[in-house]
Amino acid sequence: QGLVELALRPSSDKSQPPSQRSMVSLLLLVLSAPAAISALEQQQHEAAQAVANPIRKVVTMLQDMQKKVTEEGAAEAELYEKFMCYCKTSGGTLSSSMEEAKNAIASLTASLKASGEKKTQTVADEKEHQQSRSEAKDAMAKATALREKEASDFAKEKSDSTTNIAALEKAIAAVEKGIAGGFLQSNAALRLRRYAMEKADLPDDARQELLAF
Q1: What pLDDT was estimated at residue 45?
Q2: Which residues are the signal sequence here (predicted)?
């Protein structure tokens, strides 16, 4: 306590011997050391945060992109399943119509042989059913072609989504481990950069920041 009082006493007191003044200066230095150390630690912490925040921001954006790609893939799969269900139902209806037309033709042919006086009407009916059968076959062929096209498109979309998700997973792991430099030279990085430029649903500023990383 005596030393503290001595340190707080105005240094202009010329009655203090030089040894006391030196001791006071040393004591003031010791008392101020914790505050200086604390300020230095705070500066180091803020500097570390400034470095970490951009990396965390990039990781967050990559994770958001991965989530969107996964959701888009799930939506595409759901639409494809609904379309296939519709095609199966429509195909069954067309097959049933063709079978009915075939039976009607057979029945009309038998009637033609049995009733000569109804020949004209029967021939007209037969032509009508032949036309219906032809139209049903055309409709079924178009439905089959459309189903095959949709299946091909879906397969491509699914393949792209799987590839993009894999690239995002590699990017996130590389950034979090601090080895983004090596990843940027890989094919996965090229694929991810192309996806970010052409398809990713990102604000322009976020897209530019990601491409510049």
Answers
A1: 60
A2: 1-39
The whole-model pTM stands at 0.44
Domain range annotation of the chain: 156-212
Could you tell me if 180 and 213 are in contact, meaning their C-beta atoms sit under 8 angstroms apart?
Answer: yes
Read off the amino acid at residue 71. Answer: E
CB atoms within 10 A of CB 95: 12
- Does residue 28 register a pLDDT over 80? no
* Helix, strand, coil percentages for the chain (3-state, nearest 5): 90, 0, 10
CA distance 100 to 133: 9
The DSSP symbol for 199 reads T
65 contacts 202 by C-beta, under 8 angstroms: yes
Q: What percent of the chain has pLDDT above 90?
A: 0
What is the torsional sign of CA 51, 54, 57, 61? Answer: negative
Which of 50, 69, 98 is closest to 167 using CA atoms?
69
What whole-number distance in Å separates Cα of residue 186 and Cα of residue 170? 10
pLDDT at 48 over 70: no
